[in-house]
Amino acid sequence: MAPRTLFEKVWENHVIDSPLDLPLIFIDLHLIHDVTSPQAFSLLRDQGRTVRRPDLTFASADHNVPTTDRNLEFKDLLAKKQVEALISNCKEFDITAYDLDHPDNGIVHIIGPELGLTTPGKTIVCGDSHTSTHGAFGAFAFGIGSSEITHVLATQTLPQVKPKTMNIQIEGDMPEGVSSKDIILSIIGEIGTDGGVGHVVEFTGNAVKNMSMDERMTICNMVLEAGARSGMVAPDEKTIAYLKNRQFVPKGQKWDEAVREWSKLYSDPNAVYDKTITINIGELAPQVTWGTNPGQVTSIDDYIPSPGSFTDSETKATAEAALYYMDLKPLTKMNEIDIDRVFIGSCTNSRIEDLRLAAQVAHGHKVNKSITSLVVPGSYHIKRRAEKEGLDKVFIEAGFEWREPGCSMCPGMNPDIANPGDRVASTSNRNFEGRQGKGVRTHLVSPAMAAAAAITGRLTDIRGWNYIGEVKKNETIS
Ligand SMILES: CC(C)[C@H](C(=O)O)[C@@H](O)C(=O)O
Ligand code: SF4
């Protein structure tokens, strides 16, 4: 048999023979949330259909939920209705739903892995672009639209164009102060927001081998912002250690069988990718975005570029428009930009290791008086774990707000929005115009950089940070 890539193996395991023009693939796991599913269920009902595999469908309320008191008001009537619709639809069709107060509730892309629903080799879909996160476990995981959600609900299959493959090989040791968030931001900066279009990206190389599962999830989460269909990492001993004994993973002999199957999931030595790029991170500095898409990014010790320095007219015009919206001048030093708010959270950076890093930076310091800072764990599991480690106390003592889980300030769909004109240092994945509220300006950074910015009141180089004491760190598994 010809050598195959990881993606090709997973793909071939799921294609069902079909008379359709497009290959039809079986879907192993369907995750649903409050924003995109209500419409899909209405369509399902209109078509007189039912849910084919409720046992493979799981729901969590995440986008619209309030993160202060769960009983408080929703942002608007639509938000409230969407959460209510999610829960009643799940009741009607017998789907497991993690409602606002459920101990397993959290952002769908956070709870999938932590409950052991996400496992290597699965096909995973969700009506959400950042479904790519689950690819960190060697699954083929991708976002779908409303009519596709209906199709999966009704049939547990999906017609799909076979994507191309791209290998992003990341080599070198992670420099001090640099995280996987900085790596993926710099990759998007290099290949552009359309650099991955039509491709499933497999991350390979020694830097990826050395990453924890939390770190791998961050790069797979954000590869979507380079236009890729999804991201993947071949499962290894870290993947297996992470998953062992999680709620939904196979147990006993079935676990051993699963591990044997998972160990076949890697790209064969001579497998051919449609595209390969190699990146060395040995000299990488912490990254921060200056514009209104994640590709408009530079190092914290650099300057805002002058639009005139871009050769093609479209990039130049986009940079000019971005700087106008961001109210920034070319050649300003990145570390001299004052901020108003900090958000540590989202499916990119709200896992236990992210919170530990941020707490380590915050420990013994005080949040700058002019700054409002939120720390929002990605799930109740993470929240409980962080509290057990005392991270909540570190944050609260420093002056951060410690919230209930949810998407929070990432999408501007719940009460956590900033004021017009506010400048936010945010660990989320999108810095689009108006994303965190009308007229709000977003700078994407790592959790450590966000915590440092909260304390100094400006974008800050985490290298050389004054660490006061050590925050207790446990094993890497959340
Ligand atoms: C609401 C949902 C459709 C959306 C997405 O697909 O990504 C959201 O999660 C986001 O991050 O913008
Ligand atoms: S945290 Fe943000 S990016 Fe992730 S699913 Fe929620 S809204 Fe989308």
TrEMBL record:
Keyword GTP-binding included in the entry's annotation: no
Single GO MF annotation: metal ion binding
InterPro entries linked: 3-IsopropMal_deHydase_lsu (IPR004430), Acnase/IPM_dHydase_lsu_aba_1/3 (IPR015931), Acoase/IPM_deHydtase_lsu_aba (IPR001030), Aconitase_4Fe-4S_BS (IPR018136), Aconitase_4Fe-4S_dom (IPR036008), IPM_dehydratase_rel_enz (IPR050067), IPMI_cat (IPR033941)
Keyword match DNA-binding: no
Alphabetized PROSITE patterns for the sequence: ACONITASE_1 (PS00450)
Required cofactor names: [4Fe-4S] cluster
Start and end residues of each Aconitase/3-isopropylmalate dehydratase large subunit alpha/beta/alpha domain: 8-457
EC number: 4.2.1.33
Pathway note: Amino-acid biosynthesis; L-leucine biosynthesis; L-leucine from 3-methyl-2-oxobutanoate: step 2/4
Enzyme class at the top of the EC tree: lyase
Keywords assigned by UniProt, alphabetized: 4Fe-4S, Amino-acid biosynthesis, Branched-chain amino acid biosynthesis, Iron, Iron-sulfur, Leucine biosynthesis, Lyase, Metal-binding
Family: Belongs to the aconitase/IPM isomerase family. LeuC type 1 subfamily.
Annotated PANTHER family: 3-ISOPROPYLMALATE DEHYDRATASE, HOMOACONITASE, MITOCHONDRIAL-RELATED
Cross-referenced NCBIfam families: leuC, PRK05478.1, PRK12466.1
Quaternary structure note: Heterodimer of LeuC and LeuD.
Name of the protein described by the UniProt record: 3-isopropylmalate dehydratase large subunit
Organism (species): Virgibacillus necropolis
Lineage of the organism: Bacteria, Bacillati, Bacillota, Bacilli, Bacillales
Gene designation per UniProt: leuC
